[in-house]
Specification:
The protein has 126 residues and is of the alpha+beta class. A hairpin with a 2-residue loop joins strand 2 and strand 3.
């Protein structure tokens, strides 16, 4: 390492040329970047929110989350299901596989979740 630094001290023109090359490369690289005001993003999943005011996380998990997961489980095109139960709110995130037909999977998830019966009377529809 000391030899490299000593070489640059002895040859300041070479150090300046390398710095100029790096600066030009950075400027050209920056100009080649794709910049968008509102970038296009893809989300391969569906989020289902269910509320039950005043319910404990255990009740939410047993009454809402389990029924929603059972209704969606087994669909073609689903990668995994992740759920969270907190006081009064349940959030179920269903991730779809990358090659799956997104609109078809979303429509099937929506129809199955809308078809859930026997929700608690105080719970809001998903």
């Amino acid at each position: 390492m000391k030899a490299l630094i000593a070489w640059f001290v002895k040859n300041p023109i070479a150090a300046n040329v390398i710095m100029a090359i790096m600066l030009c490369g950075g400027i050209l690289g920056y100009k080649g970047l794709e910049r968008e005001f509102i970038p296009q993003t893809t989300f391969n999943g569906v989020t289902i929110s269910m509320t039950w005011p005043g319910a404990s996380p255990r009740d939410i998990a047993e009454q809402l989350v389990s029924r929603a997961e059972e209704s969606v489980d087994g669909l073609d095109g689903i990668d995994y299901i992740e759920s969270t139960a907190s006081e009064g709110v349940a959030t179920i995130t269903v991730r779809t596989k990358l090659g799956a037909d997104y609109t078809k999977v979303v429509d099937e998830i929506k129809s199955r979740v809308d078809g859930i019966q026997n929700l608690p009377p105080d719970a809001f529809r998903p």
